[in-house]
């Protein structure tokens, strides 16, 4: 089992969800995150005080998949979340020891 | 039916709206964890002022025989004694001989004016003071600072008023129609005195102290802007052409000051900002009060523009001089008020130095600035100092990090957490 995590631009979220659904994914977890990388934040000015916000908003998608599907999902996400500019985001794949569906008690591949 | 009574009633309502608007503006400028505290400073300021006003402050400001032109007799108007009469089981107002409107209308209107002065101060004290200290302060400030200043400027026998000792001695009293000096300058000087005594927020000039809701601030100033039309015109005490002129003056000055600030914003920061626009409106309000009825339209526009430009430059003083005037009360209210008062002395259609009227009015306005500065500054410093040594103004350092709402009031302004991190303890 693998967990595929993608940190993407918020405006690409819809495209990513559609693409993942077409690839057979039936569940995911979304979180609102902030960070920086190639693209850095902007500065804000409030009446005599300038603030640099180096953090920018992103969306994190976590998808649990079987070992053999992880690479397919990575490619799907790269396609859907790419805008060609700085700050498109990052994807990583990590191994999972064990996955359980709470409702039915199914484990690992059976839980997907 | 007396039309002036009706007008003063309406003006009082609009005037209270201005105060509420300023309070909302401050609430928006605070951070999420301090928003309710700012609201309490506003509401606590208003309700405490109303009580003190009716008890003895009206009397100190406008009632009875006065003491050296500085302050009235607090007993003569205690609990509206000199203003109300009973007829057929309902209270109505006393109509002073020779007056065109009943005294109670004055009591009410001036009370709403006092409320604005009090709430203006609160903007400098954001995010670090206890509500209890503020409430006690308001009682003393309205009695010792505001009432005498109002008396000196606006009471018939007031020291600097147009019918008082100064006028009799030199031919010209200070003309402060709607309170640039009485309301805005006294609030600014008092705010400065307090912040120098209570000190800076722990993270002032270190971590960002950004407004959490410019939307709320914007709505606040929008309301204050509308209400201010009544605030200014109410001081004419009559529903006549002068009252209409003062409203137009106010709109001209505020429009010009808004544009002045926006221009500086564009030049300095490359953007026309919302915060700049509303700040511009406020400093125009401070400037136009002094001479809404005595400057011609051209000077009104120019003075408004100058106020916008000057005040936008003055906001950086607090960083240079390292005092934590949280929401720029000194820069906006203080500098704006001084500009308005000086403008009256220089450009008043009748009596201005540069319109052929000699130095009398200008000297009187300068005297007003000095008197307000000293009276408000010294007395507020004394009150603030005594409060600091007895009750204590500030919340603990750790509480300031946690947030003054939770620490001082046990409340949160916003609860956006999708899961609850609190558990119901008991019903009391």
Characterization of the model:
The complex is a heterodimer of chains A (112) and B (428). Chain A is built from 2 helices and 6 strands, in the order E-H-E-E-E-E-H-E. Chain A starts with a strand and ends in a 17-residue tail after the last strand. In chain A, helix 1 (13-22) packs antiparallel against helix 2. In chain A, the strands form 2 sheets. Chain A has a 4-stranded antiparallel beta sheet with strand order 2-5-1-6, covered by helices on one side. The model of chain A has no long low-confidence stretch (mean pLDDT 91). Chain A has helices at residues 13-22, 70-81; strands at 2-8, 29-35, 43-46, 49-52, 56-65, 89-95. Chain A is α+β, with helices and mostly antiparallel strands and 112 residues long. By secondary structure, chain B is mainly alpha-helical. Chain B has helices at 3-29, 35-62, 103-122, 131-154, 165-170, 180-198, 214-234, 241-269, 274-291, 297-314, 317-320, 329-347, 360-389, 397-402, 404-409; strands spanning 84-87, 90-93. Chain B has a two-stranded antiparallel sheet with strand order 1-2. In chain B, strand 1 (84-87) and strand 2 form a beta hairpin. In chain B, helix 2 packs antiparallel against helix 3, helix 3 (103-122) packs parallel to helix 6 (180-198) and helix 6 (180-198) runs parallel beside helix 13 (360-389). Chain B starts with a helix and ends in a 19-residue tail after the last helix. Classes of the chains: A alpha+beta (112), B mainly alpha (428). Chains A and B meet through strand 3 and strand 4 of A and helix 9 of B.
The H/E string of chain B reads HHEEHHHHHHHHHHHHH
Radius of gyration of chain A: 17 Å
Mean pLDDT of chain A: 91
Global geometry of chain A: elongated
What would you call the structural class of chain B? mainly alpha
Distance between the termini of chain B: 50 Å
Strand content of chain A: 25-35%
Name the poorly predicted regions of chain B. Answer: none
């Amino acid at each position: 089992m693998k967990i595929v995590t993608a940190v993407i631009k918020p405006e690409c979220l819809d495209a990513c969800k559609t693409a993942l659904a077409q690839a057979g994914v039936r569940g995911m977890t979304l979180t609102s995150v902030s960070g920086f990388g190639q693209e850095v934040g902007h500065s804000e000015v409030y009446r005599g005080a300038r603030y640099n916000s180096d953090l920018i908003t992103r969306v994190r998608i976590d998808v649990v998949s079987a070992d053999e599907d992880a690479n397919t999902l990575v490619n799907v996400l790269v396609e859907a979340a790419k805008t060609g500019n700085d700050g498109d985001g990052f994807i990583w794949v990590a191994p999972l020891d064990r996955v359980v569906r709470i409702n039915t008690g199914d484990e690992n591949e059976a839980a997907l | 039916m007396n039309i002036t009574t009706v007008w003063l009633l309406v003006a009082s309502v609009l005037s209270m709206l201005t105060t509420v608007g300023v309070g909302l503006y401050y609430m928006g400028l605070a951070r999420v964890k301090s928003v309710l505290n700012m609201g309490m400073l506003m509401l606590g300021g208003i309700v405490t002022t109303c009580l003190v006003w009716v008890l003895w402050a009206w009397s100190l400001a406008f009632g009875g025989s006065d003491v050296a032109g500085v302050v009235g007799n607090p007993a003569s108007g205690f609990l509206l004694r000199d203003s109300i009469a009973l007829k057929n089981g309902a209270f109505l107002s006393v109509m002073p001989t020779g007056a065109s409107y009943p005294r109670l209308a004055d009591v009410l209107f001036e009370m709403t004016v006092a409320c604005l002065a009090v709430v203006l101060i609160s903007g400098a004290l954001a995010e670090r003071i206890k509500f209890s200290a503020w409430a006690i302060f308001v009682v003393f400030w309205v009695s010792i600072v505001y009432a005498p200043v109002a008396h000196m400027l606006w009471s018939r026998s007031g020291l600097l008023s147009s019918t008082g000792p100064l006028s009799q001695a030199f031919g010209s009293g200070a003309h402060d129609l709607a309170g640039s000096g009485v309301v805005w300058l006294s609030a600014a000087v008092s705010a400065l005195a307090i912040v120098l005594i209570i000190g800076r927020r722990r993270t002032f000039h270190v971590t960002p102290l950004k407004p959490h809701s410019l939307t709320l601030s914007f709505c606040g100033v929008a309301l204050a802007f509308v209400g201010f039309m009544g605030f200014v015109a109410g001081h004419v005490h009559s529903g006549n052409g002068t009252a209409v002129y003062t409203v137009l003056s106010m709109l001209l000055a505020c429009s010009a000051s808004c544009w002045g600030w926006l221009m500086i914003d564009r030049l300095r920061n490359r953007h026309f900002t919302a915060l700049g626009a509303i700040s511009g409106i406020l400093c125009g309000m401070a400037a136009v009060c002094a001479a809404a009825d005595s400057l011609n339209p051209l000077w009104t526009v120019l003075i408004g523009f100058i106020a916008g430009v000057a005040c936008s430059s003055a906001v950086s003083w607090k960083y240079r001089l390292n005092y934590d005037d949280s929401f720029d009360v000194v820069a906006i209210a203080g500098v704006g008020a001084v500009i308005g008062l000086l403008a009256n002395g220089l450009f008043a259609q009748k009596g201005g130095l540069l319109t052929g009227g000699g130095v009398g009015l200008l000297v009187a306005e300068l005297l007003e600035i000095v008197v307000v500065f000293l009276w408000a500054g010294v007395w507020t410093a004394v009150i603030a100092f005594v409060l600091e040594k007895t009750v204590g103004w500030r919340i603990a350092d750790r509480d300031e990090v946690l947030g003054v709402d939770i620490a001082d009031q046990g409340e949160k302004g916003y609860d956006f957490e999708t899961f609850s991190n609190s558990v119901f303890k008991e019903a009391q």
